[in-house]
């Protein structure tokens, strides 16, 4: 039987990787998004305001799918608004599909802020010890991830479908205009350093520089989502999902510098957040884009300085345990250095950064 999937947020870094994976495996793929960026060739694009129930109902009217994947969120001014808007996005889709999803599956992608707390209260509570394990549960703070989970659980019970929750670490993948994209941000930063003589300084904390960490390749996450949606071991469970290796940024930073042919600057005496230090990047990037005939001259559509600062500026160790997935049957692995290099090569091929 050919599976029919709806990807919520199909044009993002997760959704685009998932669409390519499912299409390659013969799925019929529909994608719902705001319609601002292209979707994977072969998928069917649906446009809606996910926070508006009438808009979602209009876009999904008559749609028959057996799998739904949530890979989208909308950043709001505070966590209460995040809860209201992002919880509604899940509810609007699942209640619109309703009984048509019976005996199917819905997968929700959240992240490690499940353990760390949301941006409003980031790491201020009693962060559980690393590596994070699924059984450590929720933090005693408001968190839109929990609201999304609750909407998923309630709809699964009401409409009789299975569910899975996926918690990646920082994602490496290809997407333009994505608000949470460290890989593209670091590629833009390294390119600016190479072409302007700016030192390639690690912008984050001493803990991140010296401590162990891990990351998630969007392609591995796509395989994890497909696995959970089609295997009994993945049903009605929550999972961490990372590449399977660990590293220290003091090593990885030099690897990134070597790739771009620049020198990694010594670790600074204090954090050097990109959002503060890259205020002249827009003019510099426009000149680089013109000189090399790049596709995108607006650096703000490529780099998410604030999100990379948040990830690299963490004052605590952040890494996860994958035992639950391994025991359930998911054994895939991705080398993180290779994930960065694969992305950089694709960015060159797509004329996003200079070759």
Short summary:
With 355 residues, this protein is of the alpha/beta class. It is 42% helix and 12% strand.
Would you kindly provide a written description of the structure presented here, covering whatever features stand out?
This is Nucleoside-diphosphate-sugar epimerase. It comes from Sodalis ligni. Residues 65-354 form the PRISE-like Rossmann-fold domain. The chain folds into 2 domains: 4-171 and 216-241, Rossmann fold (3-Layer(aba) Sandwich); 177-214 and 246-319 and 334-346, no CATH class. 42% of the residues lie in helices and 12% in strands. The protein has 14 helices and 11 strands. The protein has helices spanning 13-24, 53-60, 79-97, 113-116, 144-159, 182-196, 206-210, 218-230, 249-260, 274-277, 281-292, 305-312, 323-328, 336-349; strands at 4-8, 28-33, 44-47, 67-70, 105-109, 162-168, 171-172, 212-213, 216-217, 237-241, 247-248. The chain has a 7-stranded parallel sheet with strand order 3-2-1-4-5-6-10, sandwiched between helices. It has a two-stranded parallel sheet with strand order 7-9. A two-stranded antiparallel ribbon has the order 8-11. Helix 1 links the parallel strand 1 and strand 2. The termini are far apart.
């Amino acid at each position: 039987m050919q599976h029919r999937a709806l990807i919520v947020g199909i044009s993002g870094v997760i959704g685009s990787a998932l669409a390519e994976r499912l299409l390659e495996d013969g799925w019929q793929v529909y994608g719902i998004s705001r319609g601002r960026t292209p979707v994977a060739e072969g998928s069917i694009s649906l446009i809606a305001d996910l926070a508006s129930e009438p808009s979602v109902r209009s876009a999904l009217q008559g749609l028959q799918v057996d799998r739904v994947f949530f890979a989208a969120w909308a950043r709001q001014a505070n966590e209460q608004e995040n809860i209201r808007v992002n919880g509604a996005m899940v509810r609007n889709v699942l209640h619109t599909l309703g009984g048509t999803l019976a005996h199917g599956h819905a997968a929700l992608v959240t992240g490690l802020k499940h353990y760390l707390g949301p941006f409003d209260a980031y790491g201020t509570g009693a962060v559980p010890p690393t590596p994070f394990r699924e059984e450590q549960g929720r933090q005693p703070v408001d968190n839109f991830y929990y609201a999304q989970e609750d909407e998923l659980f309630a709809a699964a019970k009401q409409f009789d479908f299975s569910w899975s929750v996926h918690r990646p670490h920082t994602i490496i993948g290809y997407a333009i205009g994505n608000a949470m994209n460290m890989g593209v941000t670091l590629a833009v930063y390294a390119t600016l350093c190479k072409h302007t003589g700016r030192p390639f300084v690690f912008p984050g904390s001493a803990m991140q520089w010296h401590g162990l960490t891990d990351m998630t390749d969007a392609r591995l996450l796509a395989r994890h989502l497909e696995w959970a949606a089609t295997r009994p071991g993945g049903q009605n469970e929550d999972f961490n999902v990372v590449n399977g290796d660990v590293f220290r940024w003091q090593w990885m930073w030099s690897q990134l510098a070597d790739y771009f042919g620049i020198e990694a600057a010594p670790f600074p005496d204090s954090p050097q957040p990109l959002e503060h230090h890259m205020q002249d990047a827009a003019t510099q990037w426009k000149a680089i884009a013109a000189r090399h005939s790049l596709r995108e001259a607006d650096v703000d559509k490529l780099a998410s300085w604030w999100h990379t600062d948040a990830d690299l500026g963490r004052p605590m160790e952040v890494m996860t345990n994958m035992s639950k997935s391994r025991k359930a049957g998911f054994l895939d692995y991705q080398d993180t250095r290779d994930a960065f290099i694969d992305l950089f090569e694709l960015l060159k091929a797509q004329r996003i950064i200079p070759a």
